[in-house]
Automatic annotation (TrEMBL):
EC number(s) recorded for this UniProt protein: 1.3.1.9
Reaction catalysis annotation: a 2,3-saturated acyl-[ACP] + NAD(+) = a (2E)-enoyl-[ACP] + NADH + H(+)
Pathway(s) served: Lipid metabolism; fatty acid biosynthesis
Source organism of this protein record: Bernardetia litoralis (strain ATCC 23117 / DSM 6794 / NBRC 15988 / NCIMB 1366 / Fx l1 / Sio-4)
Keywords associated with the record: Fatty acid biosynthesis, Fatty acid metabolism, Lipid biosynthesis, Lipid metabolism, NAD, Oxidoreductase
Protein name: Enoyl-[acyl-carrier-protein] reductase [NADH]
Amino acid sequence: MYNLLKGKVGIISGALDKNSIAWKIAETAHAEGAKFVLTNAPVALRMGTIQELAEKCNTIVIPADATSIADWENLYEKATEHLGGKLDFALHSIGMSPNVRKKKDYGDLNHAWTLKAIDISALSFHKMLQVAEKMDVLNDEASIVALSYIAAQRTFPDYNDMAHAKAVLESIARSYGYRLGTSKKVRINTVSQSPTATTAGTGVGGFDAFMNYADKMSPLGNASAQECADFVISLFSDFTKKVTMQNLFHDGGFSSMGVSEDVMDMFRDEK
Ligand SMILES: NC(=O)c1ccc[n+]([C@@H]2O[C@H](COP(=O)([O-])OP(=O)(O)OC[C@H]3O[C@@H](n4cnc5c(N)ncnc54)[C@H](O)[C@@H]3O)[C@@H](O)[C@H]2O)c1
């Protein structure tokens, strides 16, 4: 370990169980010397094992539904009180689509659920930033990261309406990155991660086949949750102070590939 986050304080959302990407980010941030509070939706606190993570990281869990402005206000108030000051980093690791979860076909979407998916998975990022700005809880040069997926740019049928949510999420990172960059030198990025076997990930139809396909297409193979954590820690550290308003692909090279030999081999006519 390198003490990359020594002296830094922050908020980590979205750790549900030990497979969650946010779980690995919390463990790694703790190992790198950060202090932080954990947060998740009240229902996730009942279902998940986040308390176990809190004990390991010597911290507390503050429940917050990411779609509720009042919950963000309460979270920031309690977090800054617990941590003894303003925040240096924050992670948005929140996603859910009722249409994906209930396996609704893209041609038969329940649009009320789509609005819910966009509210939970994308507008929550705006709410997180808007409340942080209004309450002035971010230190100058703070670093904010949200997790995204390449379905924001390219079509992956089973990703359904989450594709739209991720496109909105990435757009918010740019717009708020401009705003808080000019006012406070805060940087805001999204990390577009490889398919990863988590509760949210495996909820997407055909996940196993798709994960294998992505692995075969990527020269470095799929990025694991732990590798994602390591990358996010570098974005929270002082080594990336001028990286902002970017969607950063953390995908083993997948996003730059047309086709790989491994995948071509599967389609060759045997002579
Ligand atoms: N797993 C993948 O393949 C993959 C790939 C790229 C990006 N991502 C993104 O990574 C992020 C984390 O997902 P994960 O794969 O670790 O799965 P996960 O299921 O472990 O995490 C999703 C989290 O969102 C939380 N959440 C849902 N509704 C909420 C609400 N209303 N308020 C607060 N929190 C709420 C859940 O409780 C859970 O902790 C998501 O944004 C996801 O889209 C995942």
